[in-house]
């Protein structure tokens, strides 16, 4: 039995290519592509590099974790295919994490803001134009709505504002709404908060301990690609 639990995490749900290596949920090394859309050319290079930086071999790995979506169709396909290939080759389990849940975990770990019961966390992954993939979470990171696609306008969160809630928007899809909500004090748009593989590290370790593994043969990304809308409309998350 391995005394260490080395888990390699892959995040390719956005245009950023990033990998991380952790032991018992604590990040050892991570690599983030300096340019967008490097998935096809650099993901396997980054995987090899992060293992070497840790002074390990692939035989030392206990599992592979991957961001399953929602997000970029191409990015998810490459990330999941790479993760499954590693699991097959190494005969180790596959762990999948919802991309939005990983964003929330990363924000809660890094934020110095005092989160209370009136705060709602709204991670956003960019889709196109004013569309995002999103869900709503409470101040403890508990999911309050299912992951879905949403076209956002300045009235989208009115029902929550009327309840006295404060909303924190972050992720690759949030930046484009900074001006939209600039005049609303109760809505904070966190700038340039990216989806990183290291956000998955503690989540992946918890799932490893619970043996919450995927079927490598049949696992597919969560593309969330069946959403079609043409006009913005007020759309409550709950």
Core attributes:
single chain, 238 residues, alpha/beta, Nucleotidyltransferase, domain 5, 2 domains, five-stranded mixed beta sheet, 25% helix, 25% strand, globular
Structure notes:
This protein is an alpha/beta fold and 238 residues long. α1 (39-53) packs across α2 (73-90). β6 (119-128) and β7 (131-134) form a beta hairpin. It has five helices and ten strands, in the order βββαβαβαβββαββα. It has helices spanning 39-53, 73-90, 99-110, 158-162, 201-209; strands spanning 6-11, 18-23, 26-32, 61-69, 94-98, 119-128, 131-134, 148-151, 166-170, 187-189. The strands form two sheets. The chain has a five-stranded mixed beta sheet, with helices on both faces. It has a five-stranded mixed beta sheet with strand order 8-7-6-9-10, covered by helices on one side. The protein starts with 5 loop residues before the first strand and ends in a 29-residue tail after the last helix. The protein has two domains: 6-99 and 195-210, Nucleotidyltransferase, domain 5 (2-Layer Sandwich), CATH 3.30.420.40; 113-189, Nucleotidyltransferase, domain 5 (2-Layer Sandwich), CATH 3.30.420. Mean pLDDT is 93; it is low at 227-233.
Q: How confident is the prediction overall: mean pLDDT? A: 93
Strand and helix order: EEEHEHEHEEEHEEH
Helical residues, percent: 10-25%
Q: Which strand order does the major sheet show?
A: 3-2-1-4-5
CATH top-level class of the largest domain:
Alpha Beta
The biggest beta sheet reads: 5 strands, mixed
**What gyration radius follows from the Cα positions, in whole Å?**
18 Å
Organism: Sphingobacterium lactis
InterPro entries: ATPase_NBD, Gcp-like_dom, T6A_TsaB
Pfam families: TsaD
Domain Gcp-like: 39-156
């Amino acid at each position: 039995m391995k005394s260490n639990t080395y888990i390699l995490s892959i995040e390719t749900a956005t245009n950023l290519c990033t990998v991380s290596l952790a032991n018992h949920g604590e990040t050892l090394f991570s690599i983030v592509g300096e340019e967008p859309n490097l998935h096809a050319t650099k993901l396997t290079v980054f995987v090899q590099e992060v293992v070497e930086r840790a002074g390990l071999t692939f035989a030392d790995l206990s599992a592979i974790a991957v961001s399953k979506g929602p997000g970029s169709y191409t990015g998810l396909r490459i990330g999941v295919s790479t993760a499954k290939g590693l699991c097959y080759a190494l005969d180790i389990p596959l762990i999948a994490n919802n991309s939005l849940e990983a964003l929330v975990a990363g924000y809660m770990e890094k934020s110095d803001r005092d989160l209370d019961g009136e705060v709602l966390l709204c991670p956003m992954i960019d889709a196109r134009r004013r569309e995002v993939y999103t869900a709503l979470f409470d101040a403890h990171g508990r999911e309050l709505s299912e992951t879905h696609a949403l076209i956002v306008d300045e009235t989208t969160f009115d029902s929550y504002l009327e309840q006295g809630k404060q909303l924190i928007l972050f992720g690759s899809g949030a930046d484009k709404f900074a001006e939209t909500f600039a005049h609303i004090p109760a809505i904070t748009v966190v700038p340039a908060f990216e989806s990183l593989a290291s956000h998955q590290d503690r989540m992946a370790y918890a799932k490893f301990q619970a043996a919450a593994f995927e079927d490598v043969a049949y696992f597919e990304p969560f593309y969330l690609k069946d959403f079609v809308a043409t006009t913005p409309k007020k759309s409550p998350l709950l």
